[in-house]
């Protein structure tokens, strides 16, 4: 990890660069895949799965028998853990459901309100390239169910033997997923955006993924499908002062570095912390990890930034807009109030980010690559449309009529004015 000592603000943009694939090549590859699925449907999915994932699949849709057989192989301990995580995620997200619309009487006789209506057909992408992220099923399907989405389609890449990981099947079954399909990468996004014989077309696509998945989501968004947000390679920024335990900090950094070689982890230290203590703690723990090669590649993209004080640290973090922000200092609660841009914040020495990844209750599908400056993570809100309603009485129309007619005439739109006048 490169160390930047007291970088001037003019240098922040360069330090905050994420590792990214060549954008034009990525768009070409993804564009070709989208076109192929649009033209050839299911055949394109099976061909691309063979060509890219090196997996031969006969049927794209997972059958009820496959779900039953797969889930039966799961250990009782893992089932219990998934149920516990699901209960916490449900509890946190259920509080976001707004069933009681507030009626606002803007003037006597003019009542306005807003109601949340679940998006009817949604598509969930569950990453599976380097690890089968069954926790993501909980993070997406639970809010979808709470929002009242009727059709919940899930796509995930198949394993080498053509099966879907049993924990993905179990979590999907637990959380009301209606269709599970064997498809990964850009071809999965295309299938859900355009629809094929076996993969239902959806209105909005959710979920994290690698650069192919994220690029495909952004491209289909220009056509006919909404997306949650760009949720690409995982990242974390840790702010640590002298009260932080270097081994806790290193463990948190490695927990995101192990996601993929294109992940990025940043640690911002106040000047009273020696960067070597963090480096040493990383070295000590890295050698124990089965995914150390992946984590090492991510660490090569990662940085240590030394600043004068916590205010400067938070200013740097707000500029970077991390997916996850960990505040590893005694004054973390106070510092948290100064956060302006982050997907999810972990406050104090005992809030490791991996708890949010799995089971505390908050959502782990979060904006990356600086998009936390303007996007929120997934919530129940992401799965609903908010429709506005209004009802006027005759008296209400009399009260507002003149205002509307004056404005409509000033815009030169007489028919608008007439729609009021005719009633009065
Ligand atoms: N931001 C978030 O909320 C969040 C949450 C969880 C995971 N993640 C990130 O999700 C990502 C998961 O990535 P992954 O790769 O493990 O799984 P993935 O399922 O996203 O991608 C695997 C698919 O990518 C496609 N692909 C791979 N190489 C390709 C190539 N050369 N050309 C065309 N397509 C290709 C394949 O079809 C494959 O099925 C990680 O980067 C992880 O950090 C982010
Ligand atoms: N850290 C990931 C989001 O960037 C989510 C995840 C799933 N499993 C483990 N971690
Ligand atoms: Zn993670």
Describe this structure in words.
Strand 2 and strand 3 form a beta hairpin. The chain contains 17 helices and 14 strands. Helix 2 packs across helix 3, helix 2 packs across helix 9 and helix 5 crosses helix 7. It has 424 residues and is an alpha/beta fold. It has a 6-stranded parallel beta sheet with strand order 1-11-10-9-12-13, sandwiched between helices. It has a 5-stranded parallel beta sheet with strand order 6-5-4-7-8, with helices on both faces. The chain has a 3-stranded antiparallel beta sheet with strand order 2-3-14. The longest helix has 19 residues. The protein is globular. The structure holds nicotinamide-adenine-dinucleotide, L-histidinol and zinc ion. Nicotinamide-adenine-dinucleotide (NAD) binds next to helix 3, helix 8 and helix 9. InterPro entries: Ald_DH/histidinol_DH (IPR016161), Histidinol_DH_CS (IPR001692), Histidinol_DH_monofunct (IPR022695), Hstdl_DH (IPR012131). Belongs to the histidinol dehydrogenase family. One of its GO terms (molecular function) is histidinol dehydrogenase activity.
């Amino acid at each position: 990890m490169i160390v930047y000592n007291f970088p001037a603000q003019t240098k922040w943009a360069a330090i905050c660069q994420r590792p990214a694939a060549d954008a034009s090549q990525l768009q070409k590859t993804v564009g070709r895949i989208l076109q192929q699925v649009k033209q050839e449907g299911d055949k394109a999915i099976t061909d691309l799965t063979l060509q890219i994932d090196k997996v031969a699949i006969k049927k794209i849709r997972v059958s009820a028998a496959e779900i039953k057989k797969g889930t039966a192989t799961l250990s009782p301990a893992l089932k219990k853990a998934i149920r516990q995580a699901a209960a916490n995620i449900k509890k946190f997200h259920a509080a976001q459901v707004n069933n009681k619309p507030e009626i606002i009487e803007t003037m006597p006789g003019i009542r306005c309100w807003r109601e949340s209506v679940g998006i009817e057909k949604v598509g969930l992408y569950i990453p599976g390239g380097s690890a089968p992220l069954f926790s993501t099923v909980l993070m997406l399907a639970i809010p979808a169910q709470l929002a009242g989405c009727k059709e919940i389609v899930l796509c995930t890449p198949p394993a080498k033997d053509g099966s879907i990981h049993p924990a993905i099947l179990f979590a999907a079954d637990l959380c009301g997923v209606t269709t599970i399909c064997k498809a990964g990468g850009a071809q999965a996004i295309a299938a859900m955006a355009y629809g094929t014989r076996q993969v239902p077309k959806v209105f909005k696509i959710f979920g994290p993924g690698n650069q192919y998945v994220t690029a495909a989501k952004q491209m289909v968004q220009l056509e006919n499908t909404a997306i949650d947000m760009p949720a690409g390679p995982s990242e974390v920024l840790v702010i640590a002062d002298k009260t932080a335990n270097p081994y806790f900090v290193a463990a948190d950094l490695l927990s995101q570095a192990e996601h993929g070689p294109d992940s990025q982890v940043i640690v911002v230290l106040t000047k009273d912390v020696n960067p070597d203590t963090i480096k040493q703690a990383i070295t000590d723990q890295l050698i124990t990890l089965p995914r150390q090669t992946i984590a090492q590649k991510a660490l090569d993209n990662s940085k240590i930034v030394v600043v004068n004080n916590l205010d400067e640290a938070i200013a740097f973090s707000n500029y970077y807009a991390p997916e996850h922000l960990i505040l590893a200092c005694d004054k973390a609660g106070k510092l948290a109030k100064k956060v302006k841009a982050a997907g999810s914040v972990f406050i104090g020495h005992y809030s490791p980010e991996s708890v949010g990844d799995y089971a505390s209750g908050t959502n782990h599908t979060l904006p990356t690559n600086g998009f936390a400056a303007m996007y929120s993570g997934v919530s129940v809100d992401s799965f609903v449309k908010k429709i506005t309603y209004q009802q006027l009485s005759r008296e209400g129309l009399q009260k507002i009529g003149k205002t509307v007619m004056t404005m409509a005439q000033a815009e030169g739109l007489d028919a608008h004015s007439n729609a009021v006048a005719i009633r009065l």
